[in-house]
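The records we work with from here on pair a chain with its fold. These numbers are not coordinates but entries in a learned vocabulary of local backbone shapes. To see the layout at work, look at the sequence and tokens printed below:
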Amino acid sequence: MQTKVFLREEELFKEVNITDYTKPEVESKFLDKWQNIINTTADIIEVPAVLIMKLNEHSIEVLLKNKHEDNPYNTGDREALGKGLYCETVIGKNKEFLIQNALVKKAWKDNPDIDLNMISYYGLSINWPDGERFGTICILDNESLYLKEKHKNLMREFKTLIEDDLKLLLIQDALKAKKNRMDLIISGTNSGTWEWDIQTGETVFNDRWAEMIGYSLKEISPTSIATWEDFMNPEDLKKSKDELEKHFAGEIDTYNTEIRMRHKDGSWIWMNDRGKVINWTENNQPLKMVGIHLDITERKKREKKLRVLAEAMTNISDSVIITDSDFKIQYINKAAERLFGYSLKEIKGKTPAIFNAKDLQYEIQRKINAEISKGEICERVMLNKRRDGSTFICEFKITPIADSSGEIYAYTGIQRDITEKKRQKERLELQLKFQKTLAQISSNLLEINSANIDRKINMSLKEIGTFFDIDRSYIFQFSKEKQIMSNTHEWCNNGIKPEKEKLQNLSSDKFPWWMNKLSRNEYINIEDVDKLVKEAESEQEILKEQGIKSAFVMPMLVENELFGFFGFDSVKNKKVYSKDDIRLLKIFTDIISNAFSKYFNEKRIRNLTYKDSLTGLYNRRFFEEEMQRLDTKRQLPISIIIADINGLKIINDSMGHKKGDQLLKKAAGILKESTRQEDILARQGGDEFVLLLPNTEKTGAKTIIKRIRDRTKKTENDALTVSVALGYATKDKINQDINEILKKADNKMYSNKLTESRSTKSKIVKEILNTLESKSNQTKNYVEKMKKFSTAFAEKLDLSNSELNRLLLLTDLHNIGKVTIPEEILKKSGELTAEEWEIIKEHPERGYKIANSSEEFAIVAEEIYAHHEKWDGSGYPRQLKEKDIPYLARIIAIIDSYHVMISGRPYKKAMSKEKAVEELKKCSGIQFDPELVQEFIEFLKAC
């Protein structure tokens, strides 16, 4: 423990270590000796007072005083520390100290000893062996003190003698404690003890020694070394004697071995036999030896169980560590060696605390040990370290192993390196959080306009700030010439003061370092505002005014021009942005920048035109503005007609978008011809048009609808037929919502479209087939022949009526996708190039899309998609194989191939039927379903 003493001359307090509570009390034999010392000292030096002072925590006391009538001090007198006593200086400096006359020294003339007329002083510090201060030995006189060197040497010798006594006192105390501990250990461990006179062979055993082998001491008395040898297992006797010889020869300090002793019941019990020679003859021969026997039978049984357990776990994939009941490592498997980098030899006997990478590793291990010692299973995740110092996140489970009585004798620990698993989880969690934030920001900015842009941008800044745990996020925008910057949008976390109002119309010239980086499209990463470079003094000043500790700034580009910048401030704590943080931050800011670009672009477009570029009609925006403008009582009644072009998608898919555009233009022309000059006709987008009819009641709207239908009917025999689904609604009361009227018209149109669209699509598909006949070799005659074959072969296969009808439809439509392929490729007489062949291979998928656009033909869409797949999976487009290929597709593939072979192509002569059959056999099981090929060949024979 410590106390403070006051050094009078230096006028300061000093802390010193003093006698702690673990030190023993000074025995009377030492006190008596010391009393004689100070009496003798006083007589020799001829002074009134010689004292031994003892230092306490807050005071110093007279432990001993010389017997002299002029000595003003009494044993037990105490004086509080801190007054600047003579002894305080000796103790504080740990040096001898002499004052010949305190009265002539300004610093000392008022010290407490002057009141006792003790004007001179000489003292030395008395210390324990570990350096702690015990007190002082000192001389005081009522006259000026002139010490001779021999008197000082005498005092120094007495100081050394007292300190030697203190050392001896500690040794005696330690020996007593050790003896007490040994007695307790022997009693507590229930050990057998023995003493052996090596020269005579006489032995002395205690009662417990005999009890351990099943006897009373009386039963085996008299005892000698032969008694010990008789009970020992013969196999262990030689090992024991070898150990004794090594000890006698001085090769080992103690005799320590494990032996088996025969029990009275005939069984063998294991003993740990330990001993040491305590007396030697003059010629260095062992004379007397003492030792103990510990029964370790249960321990040996447990060790055997642990060895079996360790062997069983040697080759399992998880790391396994087995400790004894004292938490000392006994076994590790190969996986543990690989995981931690240690061999068993290197760590056996150590505790698993060596693996803990955290501070206070042994304290952490102590808590774990306390938990598992109660018999509880411990499962945790913590940071561990390997032999090479590298760390990893370890998931472990420790299980106590107990014997039949419930006593725990070992622990097994299973460990796994989950660093990558945890990192992957963290990455996934971060990615999920990122995706959610990204989706939220994207959703916020999906549709922005002048009314909501500020609110939605601020919402997005909040999402970014929350994601990165930022205190403040904001946007600055530059003026056109970038001479002025202003804070336009800002979000602040809880407890963070907004700064937006202060940061308006700032001159860019004041921030040259900042602007230089932004103009080069560089981000600005300020991890510590206090450590900004000298060139950024003005930037540092304004950041400090706002209490910013760290900041990250990202340039904001709109249409590839520097528009402003994003700022992210950390006010409460400093923040470091990793490369991944910066990458994610850029994704977020790019979305906001793109939203600004989109907003400005749309605004520019709205200002430039209200016309649809394809049809020349008004566009949707113009229509919406006009609808709001005309929504007045003076314009009532107002009618709205919605027109939707039927079959546009199938035209686009089969004939291409160029043809679809022609259809839209043709439909737009018909609609325009059918309306009046005062009506507003606009293209809503895609295949939908809208007519706004001011001052038009229902009958007027019906008249226009009839006019449109009459004109579209005239196109029925055209190569490009126009079919339009129509719906209308009328507003005749001012309190009706014009938008609801628009919805009503749209609902009616959609209802009509459901009934009209089907027939239109079927008609278009039939027109496509006619087109295909004209641009390819697929004539009606060819298709009719195939249909006859399909019908007959279906009968052979016993197909149902439904399957037959689908097969005949498939015969018509299986090559419909070829309508999208250029005629020069379809009719090419020579071999196709690789590029042309790739175009041909697209027709099944295109045919699938065309058929799927019509409910009537969708029932064979999947078969059209698969009719060029092959049995072995080498076909196209999806590489289906065997029975994954639809049944009807497998049938049509055989019929089509056979007819192609016997009919020929521009680039290939026709085969004979016999050769065609041979070709089918050759391709059976490769291109075609082998069972169907066999059925088809039998069918051909019967024809």
Notes: Residues 181 and 187 are 10 Å apart (CA to CA). The radius of gyration is 53 Å. The chain has a mean pLDDT of 86.
